[in-house]
């Protein structure tokens, strides 16, 4: 690369690093970063198995193996330091800037100086900030890297198609990399056809055959994406809540915002939740309802421009506009697959198209009025300075969950999500009054959000207002929300505190019933709400700890029963339950509990020994001997106490010679045998 020609590129890269440098101080966010990175065992424990899992598992409902692999490598070599992945994200963005620089010189050489403007917009625009501050969005950076390379090499192929096909193969290779990065790569075949249009290629069979592998790859990954995102399931709720015009309005609003925020970046606030209906029989907000009109006006404007623009510039102008539309085509909510109708990161590549079209018009204007050239360049420089300033100011909002969601909350958006998240953060930090205030704000926006009542009740409980907490829990129960089982459980704890034992038992039984019903239902749909059950599990364990301190073992047992319902696959809870049953001398129940564990884990030493002892205490000596013998022979465990208790079982089973032999073995291993026991067994 000629350094003199690349001077503008170097300058833009330096400015990019300066503008987005504050984002390097960001941490991990509990908004996909937890599930994608620091709570993902495949990332924190890199191995051959985890690498296999990257390519066969959906993380955060997405298929993005290369992004997961990159996180795994970082964690393996650098640990949990968030600076490293932030530097990586910025580094990938810089690489993409270099590729866009080369691509623009292939696609739009006639724009000359304005290519620098397009590149600077791509590098510095505030819409790109989300990708540099939010680590989990790396898949978008990586897929863009491969898509841009694929387009670059396809352009090279078109320049030399009569001499070599190697560039076409390189384009296909990079496309495969894109497909393993993120499903948004499926639009590439359409982009390649658009590049064909720009290069004035005639439609032919060869042209279609060239694209066949690309379309096949898009089809396969498109199907994988539908499975990972559960489009069919999410779409059913989307369809029933909104009527056809409201869905059209939401899609129109998405397209309009992608246009608007590309040009005017002053009102970016990261989270754009789906609109609520106003009132029970109401509809979505007016700004959504008139969005189709705005799209119609934009379409009319584009048609007028198309008719007026010269032949020389028409093809490039159309290319830029369609490039933009292709890139946003899969994220305009024709179907719903996320919890927001608009995302800033989805304009990462699409913004290039809009500014190619704008620059094409500017190029024509400058050509016709050359005296205004430097005035226009000055205005463009001011515009770039404005974009860079906004990006720099926003770069530090990703520092923590509180800074991010407090920033979003300032915009007073019509979504309860920021208030839900901030409420949980402050409740976790034991600032319950502030948490309650955020929950109140969320409820004022969406009074039908039952989980807000639940989380508010948890905060209110900590302040000691049991009566009002019960009101919120009753709201959750009456709404038939998935937190219904949790609400019953919290009610049972409140009733115990105020000595209403019968009511407490009824609520506890209801909690078990609804929790189990929910677990079965959600497991069948493969969408178990892990975080919700983790919360209930944590609460129950804390309750057990407090009950053990006061030696209330009956209630300890009851809570372990709850845990075995919440987390039926955790055999440790079954074992602890069996131990408490043994401590309370509920031997037969304990035997059944340990039997359940052994059916799942036949070689579980603890379950075998505890069941053996429970059998011994209930005079089922033959069964006790079988378990003790299994531990000694099959598990190859030789402990003095095991031989001692098997000796007692042998003696009770009238097998005194074997019992005496075990007594001698226990003594040999260091067990102190009471003289009267030895005399009794070994007469």
Question: How would you describe this protein?
Answer:
The protein is built from 35 helices and no strands. It has helices at residues 7-20, 33-38, 41-44, 48-54, 65-78, 83-107, 113-124, 129-133, 138-159, 166-179, 188-198, 205-229, 231-241, 244-263, 286-289, 291-308, 311-328, 350-368, 373-394, 401-409, 417-428, 432-445, 450-463, 466-478, 484-497, 501-524, 530-549, 553-566, 571-583, 587-600, 605-617, 621-633, 640-652, 656-668, 675-681. With 683 residues, the chain is mainly alpha-helical. The relative contact order is 0.05. Helix 17 (311-328) packs antiparallel against helix 18 (350-368) and helix 32 runs antiparallel to helix 33.
Q: What attributes does this structure have?
A:
683 residues; mainly alpha; 35 helices
Put the structure in a nutshell.
With 683 residues, the chain is mainly alpha-helical. It contains 35 helices and no strands. 42% of the residues are buried.
Show the helix and strand layout:
Elements (H helix, E strand, L loop, with lengths): L6 H14 L12 H6 L2 H4 L3 H7 L10 H14 L4 H25 L5 H12 L4 H5 L4 H22 L6 H14 L8 H11 L6 H25 L1 H11 L2 H20 L22 H4 L1 H18 L2 H18 L21 H19 L4 H22 L6 H9 L7 H12 L3 H14 L4 H14 L2 H13 L5 H14 L3 H24 L5 H20 L3 H14 L4 H13 L3 H14 L4 H13 L3 H13 L6 H13 L3 H13 L6 H7 L2
Helix pairs in contact: 1-6, 1-7, 1-19, 6-7, 6-9, 7-18, 7-19, 9-10, 9-11, 10-12, 11-12, 11-17, 14-16, 17-18, 20-21, 21-22, 21-23, 22-23, 23-24, 24-25, 25-26, 27-28, 28-29, 29-30, 29-31, 30-31, 31-32, 32-33, 33-34
